[in-house]
């Protein structure tokens, strides 16, 4: 038989008590002040805020006693937590068999104090309805509380519960904040928020660290935040932010910044607008350091392109030259064939044609593996070849319009621009059934822009927008820091526009010769 009453939900109650993590914690002013106020309002020498553990009563705040805990069997609160009432009152404990044997009731007290005779306790009930302890007042004489004092004790107990919930929420917030900070550090992902009401831009700690700053080192605003981006990326970011604010258009960009220490970093910046009751309230997003990923991707692609170029050279200079030699031998042998054997002559001619076709295939493969190599004339020559092949194979008129200064790009950038054009042309052929396609290449001191326009009917539904082709285009554009847009034209058809900022271009040199479409 238990020495104290046990609530029916004791397991749930103890779990909640431990979840609030209040046991054996230091004194806190917010609780101590409530205990003092309860003692003064109820005119009692003792006031306590208690929590009932498995076998003990732990006292969080106290007035009039020095003890910090009691055995649960010696605690009035053990009975208060099971009472189905909002105020548990014991008028004279010495005359109540439930409490007469308790240590505080039977005495003696240290220092000659009189034993406790009166108890009134208001349960400390959580938002989930579980009672963890009580706010109680005790006196050394039998008595009752006035109606005002009873109500005051209930109100104060509610305040203790509110403080307990706030304390619990704050602890959870600190725990989640710590977890978020660890997650941000591990993934190199920060966050940010722009409040439209206060015009305040907030960064998380990791966003500061990605910029090479100590968290909280300075208060950012939109203009100063954009100033961290590389010069050629600032206009792109400014346009994206403006579109997100004005039209609610989300963005997901990969651009370069320069950190406080002068280090160039690649970042992935996302943003989207949040509305409330139909009105724009804030802009928020993520900020991720992707420098290592970009370096790895670049290294992999550079190695792949180098291997492709090597294979192309091998095909062209090795197998291609050997096949050319075989072709010359066949021509020489054909001249010595007897004219009296037409069947042998015809068979020999077919073999010669097959070798010639093989030479053409070999050269085509070699060019396809490294289409923009400078030995082949660079990007413009590659686009000319793409236009010619498309005309020959698909019967669609394809024109190339190079504009501006006639410079060539870094081979890495040129390669990806070519592949973007190639993918856009194939998408147009697949989805739009165009009669003509126009490739425009515009190179200026500020940026390089590639446009692929067709006069077709457009993709059915979202086939173009959601297809693998567009994903490839966007992926290659991100690798060179380019911005891609796809738009329908007023006269019909689709335009794919790819713009590369000047600071993305690693190298330019004058083109040899005059190229035209």
Can you give a write-up of this model?
There is one protein chain. By secondary structure, the chain is an alpha+beta fold. The chain folds into four domains: 10-172, Beta-Lactamase, CATH 3.30.450.40; 188-289, 2-Layer Sandwich (Beta-Lactamase), CATH 3.30.450; 293-370; 379-517, Heat Shock Protein 90, CATH 3.30.565.10. It has helices spanning 10-20, 29-42, 77-80, 103-106, 147-187, 205-210, 222-227, 231-247, 291-336, 342-369, 378-394, 411-431, 463-466, 468-479, and strands spanning 46-52, 56-63, 69-71, 88-90, 118-125, 131-139, 189-195, 200-203, 251-258, 264-276, 279-289, 397-404, 407-408, 436-443, 447-454, 482-488, 494-501, 509-510. The strands form four sheets. A six-stranded antiparallel sheet has the order 3-2-1-6-5-4. Strands 8-7-11-10-9 form a five-stranded antiparallel sheet, with helices on both faces. Strands 12-14-15-17-16 form a five-stranded mixed sheet. A hairpin with a 3-residue loop joins strand 1 and strand 2 (56-63). It starts with 9 loop residues before the first helix and ends in a 7-residue tail after the last strand. The model is unreliable at 505-517 (pLDDT under 50).
């Amino acid at each position: 038989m238990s020495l104290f009453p046990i609530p029916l939900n004791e397991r749930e109650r103890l779990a909640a008590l431990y979840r609030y993590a209040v046991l054996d914690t230091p004194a806190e002013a917010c609780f101590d002040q409530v205990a003092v106020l309860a003692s003064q309002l109820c005119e009692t020498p003792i006031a306590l805020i208690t929590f009932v553990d498995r076998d003990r009563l732990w006292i969080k705040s106290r007035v009039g006693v020095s003890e910090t805990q009691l055995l649960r069997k010696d605690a009035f609160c053990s009975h208060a937590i099971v009472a189905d009432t909002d105020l548990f009152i014991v008028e004279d404990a010495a005359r109540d068999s439930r409490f007469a044997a308790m240590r505080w009731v039977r005495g003696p007290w240290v220092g000659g104090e009189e034993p406790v005779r009166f108890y009134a306790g208001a349960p400390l009930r959580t938002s989930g309805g579980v009672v963890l302890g009580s706010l109680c007042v005790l006196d050394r004489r039998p008595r009752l509380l006035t109606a005002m004092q009873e109500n005051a004790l209930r109100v104060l107990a509610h305040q203790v519960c509110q403080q307990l919930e706030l304390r619990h929420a704050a602890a959870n917030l600190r725990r989640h904040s710590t977890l978020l900070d660890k997650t941000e550090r591990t993934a190199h992902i920060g966050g940010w928020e722009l409040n439209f009401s206060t015009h305040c831009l907030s960064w998380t700690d990791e966003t500061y660290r990605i910029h090479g700053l100590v968290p909280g080192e300075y208060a950012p605003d939109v203009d100063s935040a954009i100033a961290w981006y590389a010069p050629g990326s600032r206009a792109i970011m400014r346009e994206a932010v403006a579109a997100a604010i004005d039209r609610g258009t989300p963005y997901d960009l990969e651009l370069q910044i320069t950190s406080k220490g002068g280090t160039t970093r690649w970042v992935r910046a996302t943003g989207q607008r949040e509305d409330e009751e139909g009105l724009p309230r804030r802009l928020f997003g993520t900020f991720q350091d992707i420098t290592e990923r970009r370096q790895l991707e670049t290294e992999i692609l550079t190695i792949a392109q180098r291997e492709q170029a090597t294979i192309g050279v091998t095909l062209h200079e090795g197998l291609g030259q050997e096949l050319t030699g075989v072709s010359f031998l066949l021509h020489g042998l054909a001249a010595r064939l007897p004219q009296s054997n037409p069947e042998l002559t015809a068979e020999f001619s077919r073999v010669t044609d097959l070798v010639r076709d093989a030479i053409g295939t070999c050269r085509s493969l070699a060019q396809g593996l490294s289409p923009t190599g400078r030995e082949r004339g660079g990007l413009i020559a590659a686009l000319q070849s793409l236009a010619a092949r498309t005309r020959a194979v698909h019967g669609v008129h394809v024109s190339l319009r190079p504009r501006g200064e006639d410079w060539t790009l870094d081979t890495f950038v040129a390669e990806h621009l070519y592949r973007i054009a190639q993918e856009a042309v194939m998408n147009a052929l697949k989805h739009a059934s165009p009669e003509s396609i126009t490739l425009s290449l515009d190179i200026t001191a500020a940026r390089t822009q590639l446009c692929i326009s067709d006069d077709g009917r457009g993709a059915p539904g979202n086939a173009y927008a959601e297809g693998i082709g567009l994903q490839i285009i966007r992926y290659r554009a991100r690798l060179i820091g380019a911005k891609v847009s796809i738009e329908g034209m007023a006269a019909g058809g689709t335009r794919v526009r790819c713009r590369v900022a000047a600071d993305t271009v690693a190298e330019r040199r004058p083109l040899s010769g005059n190229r035209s479409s």
